[in-house]
Amino acid sequence: MAAGNRISQAHQEAVAGYLAPVQALWEDPTVTEIMINGPDEIFFERKGKIERAEGVAFGSEDDLRAAVNAIAGSIGRRINNEEPRLDARLADGSRIHAVIPPCSLKGTTVAIRKFTQAKISMKDYIKLGAITPDAANFLEICMFLGKNILVSGGTGSGKTTLLSLLCTRIPKGYRIIVIEDAAELIVEYEHVVRFETRMADEQGRYEVSIRDLLKSALRLRPDRIIVGEVRGAEGLELVQAMNTGHKGSMGTIHANSPNDALVRLEALAMGSDAKISEKALQYSIAGAIDLVIQISRLSDGSRRIMSIAECRGLDKDFNYVVAPIYNMGPLVRGGDGKLVGQLEPVGELPSFMNEIEDNKIPFPRAKFFAKKG
Ligand SMILES: Nc1ncnc2c1ncn2[C@@H]1O[C@H](COP(=O)(O)OP(=O)(O)OP(=O)(O)O)[C@@H](O)[C@H]1O
Ligand SMILES: [Mg+2]
Predict the structure, then answer these.
(1) 9-113 maps to which CATH number?
(2) 81 CB neighbour count, 10 Å cutoff
(3) Which of 204, 211, 242, 249 has the least CB density, counted as fewest CB within 10 Å?
(4) pLDDT, tens digit, for every residue of 222-258?
């Protein structure tokens, strides 16, 4: 029977012995990622910056392989010539991906994304410079009004963190279903159901995909659906859910701009086996997505929201009409190497301004035209 891809607590302790060389990094709460490129080249990430772990090494390639074998074994899988890649989750929520030779040229390559318990509050997020108080307020309003939101960004740009943060602003009284490859999101909410996918076993059996779980979710009377990361055909079901009354649904997607995010969602949804024409799909997406939040990891290691944009349908050539409401202003490098700059309203009212006013939300029109600073 497939054991899923999550390692139990007992197994994690057994595996820890094999990972002793990186134990100090593992236990250092300021380290967020450990990258092993063969037995004696180890890097780590701290405060968004990658550094070499000097003097840290595994005894040999065999020792490193033994560690990866132990991780694989503890979740009932094998990593070998036929299947040289491994995805695993530790009991504490950390995520491990490994690739072994011959696919990996420098020796066994492993990346460990540590689960950061540190909950980032909206206050922290503002302090980190990831968002301005006004833009944060605007996002809260969007959550209150049940806007469908796509968080878009590159690898490690802070998509999951932002999605967790948005979840803290879901108004009370809804039934939320969260679907992820591996449960990462922090969702403290009264009524929430959580699903996690299961990888296929060695014979390719028993896989349960995001799409499978999304189909189940739709039969379980959700109000809002949250998909940790849209990276496949499930994009179609998510869009359909958003269009059929599941207001306030959200997901993240790997893309470099709000427009790219919509185009990527289209490509992913099109890749599904459903019989939907390209135009129908474009209409669906344009109707489903209200807002795209673009986030980036900048060269100084900071993660910031670069744009909050509204999706306003399609133009006559079937291009998505994307209207930024907030964009990052000019970024200037300070003396300490940090980039200084902030999100600014571009001078465009959201199309749902009337909803904001009808709900008597104290966020006047003038806010969208506020001057810099
Ligand atoms: N605004 C921020 N400021 C500083 N650090 C942040 C910020 N947002 C996220 N981080 C940190 O950046 C790292 C990556 O964040 P996160 O997992 O949310 O990114 P992601 O885009 O979901 O990554 P992936 O592509 O792997 O899914 C984490 O260690 C997180 O704590
Ligand atoms: Mg993520």
Answers:
(1) 3.30.450.90
(2) 9
(3) 204
(4) 999 999 999 999 999 999 999 999 999 999 999 999 9
